[in-house]
Structure formats: C-alpha cells, structure tokens
Amino acid sequence: MEILAFGVQSDEKPLMEKAFEGHHDVRCLDVFLNEDTAPIAAGYEIISSSVNATLNNRVLQTLAAGGTQLIAQRSTGFNNIDLQVAERLGLTVARVSSYSPYSVAEFAWTLAMAVNRRIVRASNRTRDFDFRLDGLMGRDLRGRTVGVLGTGRIGEAFTRIAHGFGMRLLGWDAVPNPACVELGMEYVEKDRLLAEADLVSLHVPLLPSTQHLIDADALRVMKDDAILVNSSRGGLIDTEALVVELRAGRFTGVGLDVYEAEAGLFFLDKSLEVVADDTLARLVTFPNVVVTSHQAYYTVDAVAQIIETTVQNVLDYTEGRRSENVLVPAVAKT
User: Fold this and answer.
1) Active-site residue among 74, 95, 168, 294?
2) Where does the D-isomer specific 2-hydroxyacid dehydrogenase catalytic domain start and stop, copy by copy (predicted)?
C-alpha cells in the first residue's frame, strides 16, 4: 500500500522514507493539506497530515469521498481537525501522543534567553560591524521567578532547566506534577503566577477552555518588565491584545514560536509576497519580540520519534490494532 504524506519538509523526507521502508511505500509532498490540495488524496486509503494542515468539514468530506480511511497526523496537537465530522464520516484519526519533550522545552528557553540577552539585535549589529553594547543589557535569571502554565512532560522539562538556573518556580495546572513539586514548584492561581513571574512560559494544549488563555486582562496582570514565551499553540495568546501592550512599551521581551493565524504562512516562503496579516506585520517590528516559525519540535530526535509513531499508527490500523494514539475510531480494512 502507498501512503500519501502532506507537508513533509525536505529534512524530514529521508527520515520518513527510511521509517516506512519494509512496511509500506510512502509518497511525500511538500504541500500542506487544505481545501485546495485535498483532491490529491483521491485513491489513497491512508494519508498523513502535518500540524499546519486544515482538516475542516470540507477537507474531510473530500478525503472521505476519495476513499481515505485513516488520517495519521504527525503532531501531538489536533485542534486543526474537526473530530466530530471525521467520526460522522467513519474516518479513523490518529496522532502522536508524545515525543521528546526536550526539543520544545529547550527551544522555549532559547527564545527566553534570546529576548533577555538581545541576541537577535546583537547579531544584526555585528553583521554591520557595529559593536556597541547600548540597548543590549539583559539580566540574570538566577533568583528570579518563572511561571510555568502547564506542567506536563514539556512543562516539566522546562521546569527542570529553570531549576538549574536557580529560579523560584511557580506552576499552574489542573493537577500538580509531583516531579515539579519535588523540584520546589509552588502551584498557584493563574493571576498570582502572572503577577509575580519575571518569565512566563506556556505549555498547555489549545482547547476551547484555553483559547486566549493570555488575553488582555491576563497581559495587564503581568509585570511591565516580564518575559513571555509561547512554544505551544498560537491561539493561547490574544495577539491583538499583545500588540496593544507592546505598543505601550511593556515587557522586556516576547518569544513566540507559534502564532494564532499561522496557517498558510508558517513553513512557507513568503519573502517575495505582501503579507496581508497586519497583526503579524506589526508584531515582528517590535525590537523586543522574536518570532520563529513553529520550529520548537524540529530536532532530529523529536522528528524521528514523531515519524516512528506515525508508522506504528499506520501499522496498527492495517493490522487491526488500537492504541492510545487513536482520536476517532473506525473499523479498519484488513
């Protein structure tokens, strides 16, 4: 059987082909799955989608009409998939429940340190042989307070690094993580965390209950000189409200690896086009903001684990097994 994989980056393609070798053939496409590209999947029983795919009602209808039975998403998040429609159409949907938490946690710290120590600005200056230090002053993190919103596997990995820096640890989650408590983390209400933290990092999934978790009210509670990092999902932050606060001169730095309207932008080369997203255009102009294109997960270790799990999800489907990765069950063909 041949699997059709959408949104495969050039670095991922050899890993994908090697992982499927001896199991199934795989056809890798660099285009993302959306309403325009969904017809390409006609005749493919199994397709694999990437995190920036659009799997709404229309796309799912097209896939089902073309004979698709399994959607194997290569990500942990699945907020881009209309699961109710998929279930109604009899589609099986699987995801990657977990992969290396260190890739995202370490990148979140990369963003935090980049904005704290003005790394991007310093690098740009030295390229022009401007070696002044004016405007590059950062601050020690040791002894300061970090607030971690979401203390699952990634949040825990982030917390362990914060503990290594010698920071005071505040956490917010529905259920405390014993490993974080052992490190000395104090679990508090969200507003208290935001009010006391010098660095706030987001590590919660995007759900209806967490949409705009950091809204205008939450931003106003934060310290004027706080650092805000989001390496989870763009919809966790009300970006319009964030721009308002940045225009008012607030925050030492903001590091964003995700953006709530990133679909159709991130992972693509838009350098020769006029980007019509005014909010993003304003966001990237602030000297204390660093925006990257959803690359926190992008290490050879994490990507290899994601692909290995995706292959296993395909094998489980074709061999009639179920696993915790299945979001929407359906009867598999054998």
Assistant:
1) 294
2) 8-327
Mean pLDDT of 191-205: 98
Q: How many CA atoms lie within 13 A of 206 on its CB side?
A: 21
Q: What is the DSSP letter of 9?
A: -
In the prediction, which pLDDT does 334 show? 41
86 with 156, same domain? no
Within 8 A by CB and 6+ apart from 214, the residues are 200, 202, 228, 230, 236, 237, 238, 242
In this structure, the answer to whether residues 281 and 313 fall within a common structural domain is no
Q: Is 262 a catalytic residue?
A: yes
Other residues' Cβ atoms within 10 Å of the Cβ of residue 245: 17
Q: Which domain holds residue 231?
A: 101-291
Which is the catalytic residue, given 45, 196, 260, 262? 262
When pLDDT is cut at 50, 70 and 90, the band that residue 263 belongs to is: confident
Confidence band, pLDDT 50/70/90 cuts, at residue 51:
confident
pLDDT given for residue 330 in this prediction: 67
Question: Who contacts 187 (Cβ-Cβ below 8 Å, separation ≥6)?
Answer: 170, 171, 172, 173, 176, 181
Catalytic-labelled residue, pool 203, 233, 250, 260: 233
The 10 Å Cβ neighbour count of residue 224 is 10
How is the chain split among helix, strand and coil, in percent rounded to 5? 35, 15, 50
DSSP state letters, 102-160: HHHHHHHHHHHHHHHTTHHHHHHHHHTT----TT------TTSEEEEE--SHHHHHHHH
CATH code, domain carrying 74: 3.40.50.720
Check pLDDT > 90 for residue 79: no
| 212 given a catalytic annotation | no
pLDDT, tens only, 140-151: 999 999 999 999
Q: 248 and 231: one domain? A: yes
Rounded Cα distance between 44 and 35, Å, is 16
DSSP letter at 274 equals -
By the 8 A CB rule, do 229 and 112 touch? yes
Q: What is the pLDDT at residue 182? A: 98
